[in-house]
């Protein structure tokens, strides 16, 4: 059995202390924060390595994003394994494979195409072990404690990403890109060992319990495609996934234009980094404020207003503001990102008990894929109307998403929805 904290149902307000007191969550939380640091270090360092080898800004950008888009295919083709394999072996194995890939890039001088292929291949498996970890978190925390657990994950993720970016710059300067990649491999290895040693041996979901009998007899790929189809055909699950995919995709598109915006307006060197840091700082503050609201249901009523808050400040970029105003606008936009906390409990309630791992993997991989596509689309728009106008357009898309959410989820507190529920959009 997975140990659980005391249930936190209804309007019972859990605390961060209560959530961190749960040993299983604390282990998953800590290793994930370290892994995100390693991810940021590996991604930026690999991009530097490719640029230094080729001198191509395009290949450097491809190296930066090559680990994102394949995740969706991995989730669709392999996602059912998150519910069918033992979680300890799956999560520890995922970190070990990522460690091996980073070590391979650090030690072996491969052609650039082969290096990109290694990163893309490993990213196919990422949704599987992330989905298994998400399922364990959902089983170990209940009600408001689960929401705060996701809040802590968001806070740690943003902080670890900032730290990983800073560590990457320092490590490349001090050690060179290949040795910096080796540092990321050491961090992944530490995560794998921690999971292997400290995570209890837990049973996977029985393959025969998968929805509609899509069990092990059909193979992992068939079961994964079948499970993903059931999830996305369910109206409640589909809406809640889109609500968690679209705003981050549009905001990632706006974030991807910050460097170009700073260059167009001749900001002093280095200011683009400060501007890029404003969004994650706003996200950190927003999660802390919304996570500590005295009534848990208030988070769910604030979903649409917070999505609107994420988009409205970006309208200001249409006026081509300077550094100070731009920083404030991005900081305010980041605050609205806490809207996701209000969707966590409705999303969990809408999932089938035996498909949670695949659902969490699909949620994460879909979000990562769209965040990779967003900058490309907004970059094409910026070529025609300028970066300020494109950032404002991204804000408008976020506000339209808030209006859409309001039409079907006015208080963001739906009752649990049985699954599957094939319903037309």
Q: In CATH, what is the class of the largest domain?
A: Mainly Alpha
Ends apart, CA distance between termini: 38 Å
**What integer value in Å does the Rg equal?**
21 Å
What is the number of independent domains?
Answer: 2
Summed up:
With 425 residues, this protein is mainly alpha-helical. 75% of the residues lie in helices and 0% in strands.
Describe this structure in words.
The chain is mainly alpha-helical. 75% of the residues lie in helices and 0% in strands. The protein has 2 domains: 11-206, Growth Hormone, Chain: A (Up-down Bundle); 221-412, MFS general substrate transporter like domains (Growth Hormone, Chain: A). Residues 1-10, 206-217 and 412-425 have low confidence and may be disordered. It has 19 helices and no strands. It has helices spanning 16-20, 23-54, 57-65, 70-78, 81-84, 87-107, 112-140, 143-175, 177-198, 220-233, 235-255, 258-264, 271-291, 296-301, 303-311, 323-335, 341-350, 356-385, 387-408.
Secondary-structure map with pairings?
Blueprint: H1 16-20, H2 23-54, H3 57-65, H4 70-78, H5 81-84, H6 87-107, H7 112-140, H8 143-175, H9 177-198, H10 220-233, H11 235-255, H12 258-264, H13 271-291, H14 296-301, H15 303-311, H16 323-335, H17 341-350, H18 356-385, H19 387-408
Helix pairs in contact: 2-3, 2-7, 2-8, 2-9, 4-7, 4-10, 4-18, 6-7, 6-9, 7-18, 8-9, 8-13, 8-17, 11-17, 11-18, 11-19, 12-13, 13-16, 15-16, 15-19, 18-19
């Amino acid at each position: 059995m997975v140990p659980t904290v005391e249930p936190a149902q209804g309007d019972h307000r859990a605390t961060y202390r209560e959530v961190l007191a749960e040993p299983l969550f604390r282990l998953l939380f800590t290793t994930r924060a370290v892994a995100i640091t390693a991810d940021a270090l590996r991604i930026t360092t690999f991009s530097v390595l490719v640029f230094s080898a080729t001198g191509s800004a395009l290949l450097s950008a491809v190296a930066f994003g090559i680990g994102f888009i394949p995740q969706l295919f991995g989730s669709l083709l392999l996602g059912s394994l998150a519910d069918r394999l033992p979680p300890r072996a799956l999560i520890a194995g995922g970190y070990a494979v990522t460690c091996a890939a980073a070590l391979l890039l650090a030690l072996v001088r491969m052609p650039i195409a082969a290096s990109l292929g290694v990163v893309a291949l490993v990213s196919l498996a990422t949704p599987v072990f992330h989905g298994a970890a998400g399922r364990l978190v959902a089983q170990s925390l209940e009600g408001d404690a689960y929401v705060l657990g996701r809040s802590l994950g968001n806070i740690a993720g943003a902080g670890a990403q900032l730290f990983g970016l800073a560590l990457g710059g320092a490590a490349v300067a001090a050690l060179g890109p290949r040795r910096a990649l080796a540092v990321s491999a050491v961090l992944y290895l530490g995560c794998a060992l921690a999971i292997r040693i400290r995570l209890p041996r837990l049973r996977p979901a029985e393959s025969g319990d998968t929805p509609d009998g899509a069990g092990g007899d059909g193979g992992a790929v068939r079961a994964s495609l079948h499970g993903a189809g059931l999830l996305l055909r369910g109206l409640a699950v589909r809406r809640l996934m889109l609500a968690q995919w679209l705003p981050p995709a549009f905001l990632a598109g706006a974030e991807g234009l910050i460097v170009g915006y700073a260059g167009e307006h001749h900001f002093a060197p280095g200011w683009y980094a400060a501007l890029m840091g404003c969004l994650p700082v706003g996200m950190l503050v927003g999660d802390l404020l919304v996570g500590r609201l005295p009534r848990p249901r208030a988070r769910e009523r604030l979903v649409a207003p917070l999505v609107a808050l994420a988009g409205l400040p970006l309208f200001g970029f249409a006026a081509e503001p300077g550094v100070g105003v731009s920083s404030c606008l991005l900081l305010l936009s980041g605050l609205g990102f806490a809207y996701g906390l209000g969707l966590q409990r409705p999303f969990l309630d809408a999932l089938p008990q035996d498909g949670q791992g695949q659902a969490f993997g699909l949620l994460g991989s879909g979000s990562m894929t769209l965040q990779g596509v967003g900058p490309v689309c907004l970059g094409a728009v910026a070529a025609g109307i300028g970066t300020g106008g494109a950032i404002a357009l991204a804000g408008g898309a976020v506000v339209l998403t808030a209006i859409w959410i309001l039409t079907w989820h006015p208080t963001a507190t739906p009752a649990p929805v049985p699954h599957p529920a094939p319903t037309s959009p």
